[in-house]
Amino acid sequence: MNCATLIPRFCVRSLVLVAAGAVAACSSKPATPVVAPVSADTWATVSGHAIMKEEVDKAYRRAQEPAQALSPEETLTAKLNVLNDLIVQELLFSKARALNIDVAQADLDAAYANAKKNIPDEAYQQELTRRNVSADDMREGLRRELLAQKVLAQEVGAKVVVADQEIADFFAANKPQFNIPEESYRLAQIVITPVRERQLANSTGDDVTTPQEATAKAQMLMDRLKAGTTFSELAAGYSEDPESAPRGGDLGFVPLSRLKQAPAQLRDAVLNKAPGSVNVATLNGGHTIVLVMGHEMAGQRDLASPGVRDGISQTLRARKEQLLRVAYLTAVRTDASIVNYLARQVVEAKGQVPSAAPAAAAPAAAASK
């Protein structure tokens, strides 16, 4: 495998992007006016904190495959996405400071070692040089991502509770789903296609268009899974299948007879695999990341059957967590004072690629929405 596909995308297109579709791209209602002038290299401000062009460029280089040729419009679109991600991250950093949340050095070292994997030092350094980033840049990208995860884990994940009565009610309302007429596998998927999709239902709007991009995206998602991000979260945020993405990739129970009709790559990713295993099926330049959630023989199950209660609990928890994450990030952003100068200039240019960096806005203009 080319070393380039093993370098994780640390442009913060991870868990914070699950709610990006619900958050405005340019600005939010300010809590207080922005009164300080900004430089031409200031691409956004978040409650007085400047996000500079250099920060966006570094994050973009960490994420973008250098060999991939993009048009000026595609490049600027990607940088606008990166900038919006950094805005959301800055909001979470502010929360982290208020909550006294930090990332331990040991945790950062472990995450960096896992990201680097078994790539020889020389090859890894060559890849960093090719992307024009340093090891410190990569570590800082990881630190920011881990910090955002910790804030959301405390403020969102830890507050989600699924009651026993909710599980019982769900089972009663969906009892036919637990009657398996033949041996079946319960599956979830993340679909990555090498072409532009006409219909997209993931929460980030992410849609790769080449086999190279598809391979890099599959590697990024596998890295995120290994780092602890839930499968349903990544499926909702990044899967290019419009039917299963809104359900966190959940396909329900797939009968063995249907699996036998699937392409060999998909069958091999499922059959005889233990529940909890994740495998990648590659076909025609695209990739399907498959999670085996369960393997059931024919028959009617009840709440005492293995995996039924836990499966329902996970489904209900994922729904609640997704809702709370969207609400939390939206509320945090609404309470902040945010100005996205780069987005504002693109709007004023009517979609044309600006010839220069965003011009500094006057204080009064910066405070307006």
Write the layout of secondary structure elements.
Blueprint: E1 27-28, E2 42-46, E3 49-52, H1 53-63, H2 72-99, H3 105-116, H4 121-131, H5 135-155, H6 164-173, E4 179-180, E5 184-192, H7 211-226, H8 231-238, E6 250-255, H9 256-259, H10 264-270, E7 278-283, E8 286-296, E9 299-300, H11 308-334, E10 338-340, H12 341-348, H13 363-367
Antiparallel strand pairs: 1-10, 2-3, 2-10, 4-9, 5-6, 5-8, 7-8
Given as residue ranges, the uncertain stretches (5+ residues, pLDDT < 50) are: 1-35, 359-369
* Total of DSSP H or I helical runs spanning 4+ residues: 13
**DSSP strand count:** 10
Strand content: 5-15%
Gyration radius from CA atoms, angstroms:
22 Å
The general outline is globular
Main β-sheet: number of strands, strand sense, barrel status? 4 strands, antiparallel
Fraction of residues in helix: 40-55%
Please provide a written account of the structure.
With 369 residues, the chain is of the alpha+beta class. Helices cover 46% and strands 14% of the residues. It has 13 helices and ten strands. Strands 1-10-2-3 form a four-stranded antiparallel β-sheet. The chain has a four-stranded antiparallel β-sheet with strand order 6-5-8-7. A hairpin with a 2-residue loop joins strand 2 and strand 3. Helix 1 packs across helix 2, helix 2 packs across helix 5 and helix 3 crosses helix 5. The longest helix has 28 residues. The termini are far apart. The relative contact order is 0.19.
